[in-house]
């Protein structure tokens, strides 16, 4: 018998010998898409960082940055910036690790654990960023009150006129309003982007759980 | 992605999974590599599924995506696919009905196929699947004439490997 004919005969005979994967086994394979969601979380966090970094860069040399420099904040600002960059880089590392873990997992149980872990990381990341905004603003105000000569002058004038309390009330009220606006914009941004990704992850998680049951 | 889409996809794939197993059989030579490639093809099929419009048969479409995935992966990691010993699969697929000479011949045949390049493997695969030249040309994206020429060359090459 010709070699190719023999091969064809064997090929046909083998038809029934291949492993038969069940519906659930195949389904779990396509749930691998979780890894692409986690990859996006990693990429978006990097883009977001680049965005804020870009804004800081653009602000350099403007009147705002001149004013900041006049406040002589370097002693406080530099260590704070270093710490926050370190924390942010640590988050990048975690996001990347999550992505690597998830993309190399084919066990549904481990995949579920990793999904939960990723959700937690994102949650902490958002909390950290919101808290940074909050403390950053508070710190800025504290310094403005104590160090900004223009501002101190205004305060002194107000205390001479006897309406110091009103001025403080106005400051506190406007700060609160500004903070609420800033935090809500950021929270909305996170809710839209990370929230969407997390909802998809959650969807995958529920399906996996359903399959496990 | 809707769950309905997932459901229809998984059902179709479950039905036609042999196509993927067969692609894996020609492009890999051990159990782990087989499973890896199977999973990779499944993911690629799933990614491409929203674009599958049903103007071709699902199985035809699977041939195309499956072979493309195997070819791409084969090119990316040539060493991983080609250097390992091929004995493992040969033993798994051993058919009791063959006599010793035929079995030996088959072993040599599969070994020879593993020495072919990625496109030649695809041609052998489609030949074994009894595809006509029109289907082969569609699946591989080459002209029918070209498919015919390449097929003949591949068969000759295979014979030359077997009878040097």
From TrEMBL, chain A:
**Transmembrane intervals:** 37-55, 75-96, 124-145, 165-193
Supply the alphabetized keyword list. Membrane, Transmembrane, Transmembrane helix
Can you tell which superkingdom this protein's organism belongs to?
Answer: Bacteria
The protein's name in its UniProt record: Uncharacterized protein
Please tell me the species this chain comes from: Jejuia pallidilutea
From TrEMBL, chain B:
Sequence ranges assigned to domain RNA polymerase sigma-70 region in this UniProt record: 12-80
**What is a single Pfam family found in this protein's UniProt entry?**
Sigma70_r2
Residues in RNA polymerase sigma factor 70 region 4 type domain copies: 108-158
Gene Ontology MF term list? DNA binding; sigma factor activity
Keywords attached to this entry: Sigma factor, Transcription, Transcription regulation
Q: What are the BP-aspect GO terms?
A: DNA-templated transcription initiation
Q: What is the superkingdom listed in this entry's lineage?
A: Bacteria
Family indicated by similarity: Belongs to the sigma-70 factor family. ECF subfamily.
Q: Which NCBIfam families match?
A: sigma70-ECF
Name this polypeptide is given: RNA polymerase ECF-type sigma factor
The major lineage groups are: Bacteria, Pseudomonadati, Bacteroidota, Flavobacteriia, Flavobacteriales
């Amino acid at each position: 018998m010709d070699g190719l004919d023999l091969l064809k005969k064997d090929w046909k005979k083998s038809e029934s010998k291949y492993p038969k994967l069940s519906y659930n086994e195949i389904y779990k394979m396509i749930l691998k898409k979780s890894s692409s969601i986690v990859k996006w979380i990693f990429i978006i966090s990097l883009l977001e960082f680049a965005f804020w970094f870009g804004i800081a860069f653009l602000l350099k040399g403007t009147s705002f940055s001149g004013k900041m420099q006049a406040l002589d904040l370097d002693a406080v600002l530099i260590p704070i910036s270093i710490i926050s960059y370190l924390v942010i880089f640590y988050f990048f590392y975690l996001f990347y690790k999550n992505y690597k873990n998830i993309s190399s997992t084919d066990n549904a149980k481990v995949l579920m654990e990793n999904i939960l872990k990723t959700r937690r990381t994102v949650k902490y990341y958002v909390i950290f960023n919101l808290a940074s905004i909050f403390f950053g603003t508070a710190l800025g105000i504290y310094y403005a009150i104590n160090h900004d000569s223009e501002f101190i002058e205004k305060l002194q004038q107000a205390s001479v006129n006897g309406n110091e309390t009103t001025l403080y009330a106005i400051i506190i009220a406007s700060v609160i309003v500004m903070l609420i606006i800033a935090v809500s914009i950021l929270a909305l941004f996170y809710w839209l982007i990370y929230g969407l990704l997390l909802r998809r992850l959650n969807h995958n998680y529920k399906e996996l759980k359903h399959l496990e049951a | 992605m809707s769950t309905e889409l997932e459901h229809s996809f998984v059902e179709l794939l479950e039905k036609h999974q042999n196509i993927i197993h067969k692609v894996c059989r020609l492009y890999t030579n051990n159990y782990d590599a087989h499973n890896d490639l199977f999973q990779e093809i499944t993911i690629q099929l799933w990614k491409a599924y929203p674009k599958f419009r049903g103007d071709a048969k699902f199985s035809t479409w699977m041939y195309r995506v499956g072979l493309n995935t195997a070819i791409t992966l084969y090119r990316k990691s040539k060493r991983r696919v080609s250097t390992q010993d091929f004995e493992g699969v040969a033993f798994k697929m051993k058919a009791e009905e063959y006599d010793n000479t035929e079995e030996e011949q088959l072993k040599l045949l599969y070994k020879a196929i593993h020495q072919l390049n990625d496109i030649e493997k695809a041609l052998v695969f489609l030949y074994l699947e009894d595809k006509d030249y029109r289907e082969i040309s569609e699946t591989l994206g080459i002209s029918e004439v070209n498919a015919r020429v390449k097929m003949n060359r591949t068969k000759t090459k295979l014979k030359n490997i077997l009878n040097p």
